[in-house]
Amino acid sequence: TPTAVVIPAAGRGVRLGPGAPKALRALGGTPMLIHAVRAMAASRGVSLVVVVAPPDGADEVKSLLDAHALPGGPPSGSWGRTDFLVVPGGSTRQESVRLGLDALPPEYGIVLVHDAARPLVPVDTVDAVIDAVREGAPAVVPAVPLADTVKQVEPAGTPGEPEPVVATPERARLRAVQTPQGFDRATLVRAHGTVTDDVTDDASMVEQLGLEVVVVPGHEEAFKVTRPLDLVLAEAVLARRRL
Ligand code: C5P
């Protein structure tokens, strides 16, 4: 079954501080989005990448992808055996993913959704997700155990005010979820057409349909670049890879 990846890259990245949209910020001199597309194209199972650009930035993102294709290589819209498409995104991550899904040609039966903000995910993680979907799971998420204990609180009315703790889930049973998340296409399309609640990951929409979601091992290098400190870590990981 041909596999496509949708990369939502339309976020502003407000928590990272002022500047360009997060996906277009540089990491080792190359935009984060380019790293993310390369990470997906590294998997032999991936034949199409759909990048969901900032609503007013689709042309810029298209040029950027063409500029990072191999010189003298394949025609515009392709990096060797991986084709790419660019579509304008929406005002929420969920809407951006749906717009990416709408752009998929019919032959792609497996869809991965990968955050542009996770530029350094290793190819083994991508392959593990694809393999689990191929083996029949309707939804697959890579995840890692937590270092911190997590507490559920009653959010304070005023920022900075102490917040009462409501519960402490057993840490050994918790996982921090990463991307790419992999899906049987029809399942993901149904989830996006049914669930309207605000969600932070695609798999939770499939859970809301009552379908099983399974976890495969993620990787510490698949962390999300969200705050300024994450950029420092990402630069260090890249530098280590280049040794
Ligand atoms: O904000 P957060 O880090 O959760 O964003 C995750 C991913 O969703 C990022 O790659 C971001 O660019 C993308 N996104 C999007 N459209 C939005 C908001 C976020 O494509 N409106």
From TrEMBL:
Pathway of action: Isoprenoid biosynthesis; isopentenyl diphosphate biosynthesis via DXP pathway; isopentenyl diphosphate from 1-deoxy-D-xylulose 5-phosphate: step 2/6
UniProt GO MF annotations: 2-C-methyl-D-erythritol 4-phosphate cytidylyltransferase activity
Annotated positions for site Positions MEP for the nucleophilic attack: R171, K224
UniProt keyword list: Isoprene biosynthesis, Nucleotidyltransferase, Transferase
UniProt site (Transition state stabilizer): R15, K22
Source organism, top-level taxon: Bacteria
Enzyme Commission numbers on file: 2.7.7.60
GO biological process, any: isopentenyl diphosphate biosynthetic process, methylerythritol 4-phosphate pathway
Enzymatic reactions: 2-C-methyl-D-erythritol 4-phosphate + CTP + H(+) = 4-CDP-2-C-methyl-D-erythritol + diphosphate
Enzyme class, UniProt record, top EC level: transferase
PANTHER family xrefs: 2-C-METHYL-D-ERYTHRITOL 4-PHOSPHATE CYTIDYLYLTRANSFERASE, CHLOROPLASTIC (PTHR32125:SF4)
The family this protein is said to belong to: Belongs to the IspD/TarI cytidylyltransferase family. IspD subfamily.
Functional description taken from the UniProt entry: Catalyzes the formation of 4-diphosphocytidyl-2-C-methyl-D-erythritol from CTP and 2-C-methyl-D-erythritol 4-phosphate (MEP).
Entry-linked NCBIfam families: ispD
Name assigned to this protein: 2-C-methyl-D-erythritol 4-phosphate cytidylyltransferase
Source species taxonomy: Bacteria, Bacillati, Actinomycetota, Actinomycetes, Kitasatosporales
Gene: ispD
